[in-house]
Amino acid sequence: MTDAITASGLTVSYGDTLALDDLDFTVEPGLVHGLIGMNGSGKSTLFKALMGLVKVDAGEVRLYGADPERARRAGRVAYAPQNEDVDWAFPVSVEDVVTMGRYGQMGWRRRTREEDRRRVSEALERVELLDLRDRQIGALSGGQRKRAFVARGLAQGAELLFLDEPFAGVDKRSEATITELLRDLAAEGRTIVVSTHDLVAVPALCDRVALINRRIIAHGDADDVLRPDLLAEAFGGFVPQEALRA
Ligand SMILES: Nc1ncnc2c1ncn2[C@@H]1O[C@H](COP(=O)(O)OP(=O)(O)OP(=O)(O)O)[C@@H](O)[C@H]1O
Predict the structure, then answer these.
(1) Which residues form the ABC transporter domain (predicted)?
(2) How far is 22 from 11, CA to CA, in rounded Å?
């Protein structure tokens, strides 16, 4: 089976800051992968590089064997950004945000067809936001906002979903709802990569765990990866205690 992601020798810098350093990352399809690392370890940059959204100094990315930009344009990959990267005051409804997932298929006039409206409704129903479809996106709770972005990816028909910190600012109940949703999507064959600081959330959510600190330090089963020595390497000598209890 073709891997969902293969990245090799990926190097990205912003001026003098080296964000990714000769990083290799291979992701099996149909699983939930957790991407764990401290602030500034390159998690968001990795997502952007995998989607062809930042300039890569060196290295190569393939998504299902294809060029990342092509995979993105074909709607095969979707990205739910960190809260800070979204303008929540923007005057769009939840339904508008999910409809954006259909833009690639709509043509330049962006006129919605029956098929688009059906896919949007199905996606909203799937994430249990159908009754909030007319609400302004910023008037949702943290967990509902994340689900709206997942719905956008589903409306688009994405096979590969990237979620940047989906549990930030989300209560335990919403976290459980999102976890269940992502587990179901993976069971249907989608591939999911989730960046999180929340190590306690990892066992319930992730099939595999990757530790990142500008490169991938370890990637595999949680028991093999969440080891004190590897965590110390990822977290710069500081081992988060909750990681060892996870
Ligand atoms: N647009 C940018 N311009 C300059 N430096 C940047 C930019 N984006 C990220 N960086 C730097 O690149 C490094 C990696 O940042 P990145 O946002 O990928 O890390 P992260 O693991 O997602 O962090 P966090 O957990 O805080 O969101 C950091 O040192 C950051 O300051």
Answers:
(1) 5-239
(2) 5
